[in-house]
């Protein structure tokens, strides 16, 4: 039987939807996640307004953007705002960052206990994959798995503080091809009681360049008894099925593919239920979605900061549409809904979603980097001493500027 005509890249034209019983719900402690799909934590992206949109499009587990433990514990206003969420957001999933086990322990206690500004967390994720230079330079993020004993201390503190709330970790393959850490990360995750490990098939040096390497995901699946989640180059619902079939992973983590495309989760829900997804929205339907998104950001962040946040979303929503490159030059400067509407009105609202937009570059470039580590960091990889924290007053100010989007 021939497959129906799809809007898809050539690699996915003959990929079948899931057969009955082919895949199972992703089990994270007491949480059963169906379909086995997770919205990736992305700084400046997975805030409450965007998570709300993704949930409306059937995303079953939406992880917050990375929250810095030290900033939260010091009472940083923006971090506390980002730690908040909708009262009906269930399951509530929070990603945290710290290289200090004591900070992690205290932060997790507060998250699972709830507060006046946020309901209790149902899932905690630890970030050990951040490739940002200011973080690795201080021994944080993707530098931490280079020291498995330190990684174990941090994870142990989180699991102990979380009680029955599942704790997962997200990592990369390593710092570089010469310093691969994913095997140690998987071993530590299993030994220290993590509910799952998510692996992005790139090193920190690769950033988002080239093609993600899915083979290490399959390798962890073969060697671990805890669930392994796959991440990297999941642009379409069909990519998720291909990854799970190729690697045997228990679920997928969707990152850049959903930027400006929250309906990707509706498509994922369809194919995991054995159905062909409906056609993506027209530009006019996307424009209406953009307005809702902008209003939600303005309500959450305030009118000025909300519209500054919306600028990057304007570029992602309009990627690939005819004439959009000229209009995006205006959209990256909009300061009001009226300006956004006026710029979008120059496009053809009847245009269907274009094939070229499926894997269009979103948010990250194709460059590589030389990962900078603290002086002497590679000299004692058995050390479990936390590095000096990378988040001081200057870093907090820079963090706020980055999240401001302007």
Describe the structure.
The protein is an alpha/beta fold and 406 residues long. It has 2 domains: 252 residues, TIM Barrel (Alpha-Beta Barrel); 75 residues, Non-ribosomal Peptide Synthetase Peptidyl Carrier Protein, Chain A (Orthogonal Bundle), CATH 1.10.1200. It is 38% helix and 12% strand. It has 15 helices and 13 strands. The strands form 3 sheets. The protein has a 9-stranded parallel sheet with strand order 4-3-13-12-11-8-7-6-5. A two-stranded antiparallel sheet has the order 1-2. The protein has a two-stranded antiparallel ribbon with strand order 9-10. The longest helix is centred in the C-terminal third of the chain and has 19 residues.
Number of DSSP-assigned strands: 13
How many structurally independent domains?
2
CATH architecture of the largest domain: Alpha-Beta Barrel
The amount of helix comes to: 25-40%
The description of the largest β-sheet is: 9 strands, parallel
């Amino acid at each position: 039987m021939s497959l129906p005509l799809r809007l898809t890249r050539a690699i996915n034209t003959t990929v079948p939807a899931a057969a009955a019983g082919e895949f199972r719900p992703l089990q994270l402690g007491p949480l059963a996640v169906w379909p086995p799909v997770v919205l990736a934590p992305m700084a400046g992206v997975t805030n409450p307004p965007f998570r709300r949109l993704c949930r409306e499009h059937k995303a079953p587990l939406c992880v917050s953007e990375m929250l810095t433990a030290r900033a939260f514990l010091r009472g940083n206003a923006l971090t506390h705002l980002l730690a908040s969420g909708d009262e009906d957001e269930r399951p509530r999933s929070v990603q945290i960052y710290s290289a200090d086990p004591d900070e992690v322990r205290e932060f997790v206690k507060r998250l699972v206990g709830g507060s006046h500004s946020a309901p209790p967390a149902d899932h905690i994720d630890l970030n050990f994959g951040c490739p940002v230079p200011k973080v690795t330079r201080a021994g944080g993020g993707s530098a931490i798995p280079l020291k498995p004993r330190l990684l174990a201390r941090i994870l142990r503190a989180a699991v102990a503080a979380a009680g029955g709330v599942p704790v997962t970790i997200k990592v990369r393959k390593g710092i570089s091809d010469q310093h691969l850490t994913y095997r140690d990360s998987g071993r530590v995750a299993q030994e220290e009681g993590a509910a799952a490990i998510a692996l992005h098939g790139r090193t920190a040096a690769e950033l988002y360049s080239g093609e993600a390497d899915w083979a290490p995901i399959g390798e962890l699946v073969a060697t671990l008894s805890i669930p392994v989640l796959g991440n990297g180059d999941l642009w379409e619902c069909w990519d998720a099925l291909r990854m799970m079939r190729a690697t045997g992973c228990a679920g997928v983590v969707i990152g850049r593919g959903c930027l400006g495309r929250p309906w990707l989760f509706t498509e994922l829900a369809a194919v995991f239920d054995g159905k062909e997804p409906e056609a993506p929205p027209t530009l006019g339907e996307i424009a209406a979605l953009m307005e809702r998104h902008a209003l939600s950001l303005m309500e959450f962040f305030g009118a000025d900061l909300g519209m500054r946040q919306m600028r990057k979303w304007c570029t992602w929503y309009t990627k690939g549409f005819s004439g959009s490159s000229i209009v995006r030059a205006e959209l990256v400067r909009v300061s009001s809904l009226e300006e956004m509407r006026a710029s979008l009105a120059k496009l053809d609202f009847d245009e269907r979603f274009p094939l070229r937009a499926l894997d269009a570059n979103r948010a990250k470039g194709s460059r590589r980097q030389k990962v900078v580590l603290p002086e002497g960091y590679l000299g004692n990889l058995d050390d479990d001493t936390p590095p000096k924290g990378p988040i001081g007053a200057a870093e907090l100010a820079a963090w706020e500027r980055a999240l401001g989007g302007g």
